[in-house]
Amino acid sequence: MRNRRHTINIGKVLLVGLLVLVMAGCAAKSVSEKEIEEAPPESLTISGINTSQTDDGMRVSIKADGELTYTAVKQRDPLGVILYLPLTKLADTGKIAIPDNHIIDSVIPSMTANQKTARIEIGLLKDCPYKVEKDSSMLNVFFASTQAAGQPPCEAGSAVVSQELGASKTMDDKEKVEHP
User: Fold this and answer.
1) Model's pTM, two decimal places?
2) Which of 49, 65, 91, 168 is the most buried (most CB within 10 A)?
3) What is the 8-class DSSP label of residue 136?
4) Which of 137, 50, 44, 42 has its CA nearest to residue 91?
5) For 73, phi and psi rounded to 5 degrees?
6) Residue 160: CB partners within 8 Å, gap ≥ 6?
7) Residue 108 CA: distances (Å) to CA of 50, 123, 174
8) pLDDT score recorded for residue 178
9) Is 152 helix (H, G, I), strand (E, B) or coil?
């Protein structure tokens, strides 16, 4: 009887010891994962933004101290293209001069709320195709003033809306005439 109690007590002690070891191992592992997540990654800095005319449109150039990663989003209202550059800061780029043109209205650099992502909003005067090219530490955003063959010409956003509304109104009038 005494042997049996002794064996049960030894089993309980071993079980508690094993549980303590498992818990200590998990706690140490989660601390090291937290340290890795909190380690700040290296961030880039945008040192200059400028606009220039090209033979077939406009170009916005963004210069940084390393290779930039970006996401470009085209928006309809207000008409423009927004570039998001994660883990990137803005240096004092000064006033961005925009030459007289019929494509780009404004270039507005800012930081997102979390202060980890640079945001560059390029306001457009008309809806035109664009392409972004990476060149080492430079991003070039090209806006074409003419369309490729087979595509409709670039138009101002308000003209497109008024044409669509006009077409819609004409169809409604036709329906009233055809179906009294």
Assistant:
1) 0.61
2) 49
3) T
4) 44
5) -130, 125
6) 127
7) 11, 8, 45
8) 39
9) coil
| Centroid of chain to Cα 166 | 35
22-26, 90-94, 116-120, 162-166: the lowest-pLDDT one: 162-166
Q: What is the mean pLDDT of the chain?
A: 77
- pLDDT band of residue 57 (cuts 50, 70, 90) is very high
Provide the 10 A C-beta neighbour count for residue 91. Answer: 14
Residue type, 104: I
Cα dist. 87→42, 44, 49, 95, 147 in Å? 8, 6, 17, 23, 34
Cα first-last separation, the chain: 103
Residues sharing a CB contact under 8 Å with residue 148, sequence separation 6 or more, in sequence order: 129
Under 8 Å between Cβ of 142 and 131: yes
